[in-house]
UniProtKB/TrEMBL annotation:
This is TTF1 factor. One of its GO terms (biological process) is termination of RNA polymerase I transcription. It comes from the Eukaryota. The gene is Ttf1. It comes from Elachura formosa (spotted wren-babbler). It holds the Pfam family Myb_DNA-bind_6.
């Protein structure tokens, strides 16, 4: 299959495939396209977002079955083969012989790469070690000064996952401010996001009939692009005094305030109607886990708002309306809202 055809066929399942590199498209065409088509035939959509408990169990089952099939004696050797140079060639041969890519992703409607990363996280013995001690933080700073951002090397030295050490260093590498945001910090954040969006739009439009002009005029940006995934580590660097998670939370709050400024949501009869419509839409999704919801799609119930606004409203709704909600599963919360809270709201309306 040629590259253009692969992109075209994958776009049905991965809308952002046009922005992916050629090598990534080739890998997805080989590993995922046949799987995606089979899931479509079964009426199952390709999923993103947080993995469900059911998916985690399926990954664990797939890994255990592959170990049994090949005789590899641990998930550590299978998923972190580079740590075992003496067994590397043997394991690599077994992976090819027994179709590792297909086996590890069996029954899970997600891109193979995401399933593989999830499996590595689940079976990484260094991934669940709690809070960093003061001594560990000092060691992390020392190792980063010696090895730069070689997180694999630092991961070995710290006996923590590479993701964990990278994120923790992001938090402690500068004099991070934990208090209220100043006007200067907020402006730096706005400028950083604007620069990222300009660069992204320019990249997407390079070679198009109407490319984005290089000027001080801000281009029109679709609402969906404003709250999609952004390079927060890059934005963190430009802000300087806040780590990436703070930047992300602040941007979401700014976005929500700007997009809802002209909406009188959750007030009077319009607020009641919005809650009613929201509960009905939640129930219609038949979702078993919050990660199965398309929050962007649900946002249309309230108007021109980002997903974080909808997620916040859902949290407030379950806390105020569902007794002992912490002891209930996600589907039980939705059922309670639909069976108990909805009739009360409709009567009140």
């Amino acid at each position: 299959m040629d590259l253009d055809t692969a992109r075209q066929e994958l776009e049905e399942f991965i809308p952002h495939v046009r922005n992916m590199s050629d090598s990534s498209v080739k890998k997805m065409a080989g590993r995922d396209l046949t799987r995606f088509k089979e899931f479509k035939r079964q009426g199952i959509a390709v999923r993103f977002g947080r993995f469900t408990q059911k998916e985690n169990k399926q990954i664990q089952k797939n890994v255990e079955e592959f170990l049994s099939l090949t005789g590899i004696d641990s998930a550590e050797k299978l998923l972190f083969t580079w740590k075992y140079p003496e067994d590397k060639n043997t394991i690599h041969h077994l992976k090819i012989k027994y179709n590792f890519c297909e086996k590890i992703s069996e029954g899970i409607p997600r891109p193979w790469r995401l399933i593989y990363y999830r499996a590595r996280k689940m079976f990484d013995s260094n991934n669940y070690k709690g809070r960093y001690t003061k001594e560990e933080k000092e060691k992390l700073k020392k190792y980063q000064a010696l090895h730069g951002n070689d997180w694999n090397k630092i991961s070995e030295l710290m006996s923590r996952s590479n993701l964990s050490v990278a994120m923790k260093f992001s938090e402690i590498r500068s004099a991070t401010n934990y208090g209220p945001w100043t006007k200067e910090e907020t402006q730096k954040l706005m400028n950083a996001v604007k620069q990222v969006m300009r660069t992204r739009l320019h990249t997407e439009n390079t070679g198009s009939v109407f490319p984005v002009e290089q000027s001080d005029t801000d281009p029109w940006i679709e609402r969906e692009k404003l709250h999609q995934s952004l390079p927060w580590s890059e934005i963190e660097t430009q802000v300087g005094s806040r780590f990436w998670r703070q930047c992300k939370q602040k941007w979401n709050s700014i976005l929500t305030r700007k997009l809802t400024r002209r909406h009188q949501l959750y007030r009077g009869t319009s607020g009641l109607q919005a809650k009613i419509n929201f509960i009905k839409r939640l129930y219609e999704t038949k979702a078993e886990e919050a990660s199965e919801l398309n929050w962007d799609e649900l946002s249309s119930v309230f108007g021109d708002v980002p997903r974080t606004y909808v997620q916040t409203k859902f949290y407030k709704l379950k806390v105020s309306s569902v007794p002992l909600w912490k002891r209930k599963t996600f589907s039980e919360i939705i059922e309670y809202l639909y069976e108990k809270t909805l009739p009360e709201l409709e009567e009140k309306l």
